[in-house]
Amino acid sequence: MRLALFADIHANRQAFAACLEAARARGAERLICLGDIVGYGADPEWAVDTVTDLVAKGAIAVRGNHDNAIGVPSDSMNSDAQAAIDWTRGRLGAEQRAFLAGLPIMREEDNRLYVHSEASDPEGWRYVRDSSDAARSMMATEQHVTFCGHIHRPGLYSLSSAAKMTSFVPTADIEVQLLTGRRWLAVLGSVGQPRDGDPAASFAMFDTVSRAITYLRVPYDVDAAATRIRVSGLPRWLADRLLIGR
Amino acid sequence: MQPGAEIDGFAVGECVHRGGMATLWSVTHPGIDVALLMKVPLTAEGEDPAAIVSFEMEQMILPRLSGPHVPACFGTGDFERQAYVVMERIGGQTLYKRLGDLPLGYEEARAIAGKVASALANLHRQNVIHHDIKPSSIMFRERGEAVLIDFGLSHHNHLPDLLQEEFRLPYGTAPYMAPERLLGVRDDPRSDLFSLGVLLYFFTTGVRPFGETETLRGMRRRLWRDPTPPRKLRGDYPPWLQEIVLRCLEIDPAARYPTAAQLAFDLAHPEKVKLTARSQRIKRDPLRTVWHRRFNLGTMQPQPKSDVEAQLASSPIVAVALDTTEGSGALNEAIRVAAEQALSTLPSARLACLSVLKLNLLALDRTLDEQGQNKHVDRLVALQHWARPFQLDESRLTVHVLEAIDPAAAILEFAAVNLVDHIIIGARQNSMMRSLLGSVSARIASEAPCTVTVVRPSRLASPAGAGDDAKAADRPADEAAVTPPGLF
């Protein structure tokens, strides 16, 4: 089965719509949303409604820290993020807020684990920045592959049977087979707010039979998304950063 | 695993080899009519842990490779059931069998190294660094192409490097290992050129340049100690060969050939190798230099992350074909501008200037013209003159006069054999000649194995070379007709 995995959509309608279309074109049979549906972007209602609809049709979604902060105020966010959360909270209806609050923190399926930040302390919202962060997450699960997001920069880590780590920055469009002899942590880039210097939206496809993952980049109308943020009165930097992918 | 077993449709025959990391079995498959080998890693308790990791690397890399310089891959199986890779069985022996014949003659060694360099160029273009070039990983097809085998230690620029942190010590074959590997660098394709340099040195002198040491301490000496120049060992060692070998064995990767294609080029044209002080050396570097290197290791560490593709792209072989039979000053000038633009941002690019001396079908051997002058030499001189304004280091510039009945075929052949990345050629201007002879540039543009730039003089210039003087007045003086019109 071909999975399409999306992380950190962040209410960016233009980016998420472009990724959904690209995933359909590649024959995606099941959609996985790895959290942070809202926050930063200007179209939270559309984003939540879209994911709600996908989940009703069989998609899996887990909760991210921004989704969480809508219902449970966080004291660890920077001022721009906090401003966006406060703005978003006012935009969402009770049903939409309930949907976000009801999302699970982690989901397991076959030999795969889906989580927003990482597996060792999923509600601690730690970033996977390097091999040691990745090792901590992989040690905390038995699953062959963990898929996560949160850091907005793609990465692919593996843990060998001899407890050795490898780290790798995936190349877009190149299929990588996740060998069965080791465990893997696939960190996805962000759909709605990439921070690796490439403004194109990022998502991944995973084939459960061949166990091959392909990271993809999708160009989208960045200017339209940035304009939406500006006219909504959200902090300007949240618009500017989309243009440079930072 | 035993003869008679069947795995995923492959019928297992006899075991043909038992190595330290894997066993090789002859297998057959009803749908495949080439000879096949199944490689099965040794994974039992107590076996070398490198066996598993290197098998994983080979399992990831081999199916992505193609072309005549690697064994074709027909299937893989992973550790869940039976780990294996099925590949084409290459007939004959590896170069290891030749160790008893060393030293080889210079010509034979040159031919072997040239084939291996072409194979490496092809591999590097597929984003893979072999990292274990040595006699036992090199075979040959019947048609002569070198085939590289054993990708267990290889690095793929687009795949996770599983050997990255697996071993505390660099893993590989000590006598052939490039110095930067000892610093943990696994992403520089020039490491393979060093290993090929070791092989060429060994095959032509009978002696390994860095001995047979297996200890890390012994291996680290190559980070500061250069090998004994081959001329010291064999008095008749050709200077061009020493130039090539010692350039491959440079400690700093940046001082080696920038690409395997450029090394293959020199091996194919020994008479055109630019000789430097390297070629004459009979002593190793003075101790002062050696100590300086040894105690300043930090300064020579290569960049931590390089990109194989980017490195190859920055070091192309650019061939400029000058149609000297009817070339005008304006056209050759336009070609020069195009070549300058192609070279301007590429400090490691190499320029090959070609001119085709068109032979008459009925008089193949007439190289002297009516005045008895040697046309071939005249062309070489003209090409050198044309190329002089580039002020390229001689090691980056060669001139070639191809004698052929069919100019387009000759240029295409040159580009294919010499792994040329970019051809720059002028469009034939004279419409009558063009209609009679067909367009050389059009045929090259459609059939070349690489990028082709077809150049026309700027529209201000009048066609077919007439009126150059008028045009020169419109141009800055330094650009105007550096090549005197009518030189060719």
Describe what is shown at a glance.
The complex is a heterodimer of chains A (246) and B (488). Helices cover 33% and strands 22% of the residues of chain A. Chain A has helices spanning 13-25, 44-56, 65-71, 79-91, 94-101, 131-139, 222-231, 236-244, and strands at 2-6, 30-33, 60-61, 106-109, 112-115, 145-148, 155-159, 165-168, 175-177, 183-187, 201-207, 212-218.
Average predicted local confidence, pLDDT of chain B? 85
Largest sheet of chain B: 6 strands, antiparallel
What's the assembly state of these chains? Answer: heterodimer
Beta-strand proportion of chain B = 15-25%
Amino-to-carboxy terminus distance of chain B: 70 Å
Q: What is the CATH architecture annotation of the largest domain in chain B?
A: Orthogonal Bundle
| CATH topology call of the largest domain in chain B | Transferase(Phosphotransferase), domain 1
Instruction: Show the largest interface.
Output: A-B, 19 and 19 residues
**Main beta-sheet annotation of chain A:** 6 strands, mixed
Order the strands across the largest sheet of chain B as they lie in space: 1-2-3-4-6-5
Number of strands of chain A: 12
User: Rounded to an integer, what's the Rg of chain B over CA atoms?
Assistant: 26 Å
- Alpha-beta content class of chain B: alpha/beta
CATH homolog superfamily of the largest domain in chain B: Transferase(Phosphotransferase) domain 1
Report what the structure shows.
The complex is a heterodimer of chains A (about 250) and B (about 500). Chain A has about 250 residues and is α/β, with parallel strands linked by helices. Helix content of chain A is about 35%, strand content about 20%. Chain A is built from 8 helices and 12 strands. In chain A, a hairpin with a 2-residue loop joins β4 and β5. In chain A, α3 (about 65-70) packs across α5 (about 95-100). Chain A is globular. The two termini of chain A are about 35 Å apart. The model of chain A has no long low-confidence stretch (mean pLDDT about 95). Chain B has 3 domains: about 5-90, Phosphorylase Kinase, domain 1 (2-Layer Sandwich); about 95-155 and about 170-295, Transferase(Phosphotransferase), domain 1, CATH 1.10.510.10; about 315-475, HUPs (Rossmann fold). A 6-stranded antiparallel β-sheet of chain B has the order 1-2-3-4-6-5. In chain B, β1 (about 5) and β2 form a beta hairpin. The termini of chain B are far apart. Mean pLDDT of chain B is about 85; it is low at about 465-488. The chains are: A alpha/beta (about 250), B alpha/beta (about 500). The interface of A and B includes residues 166 and 182 of A.
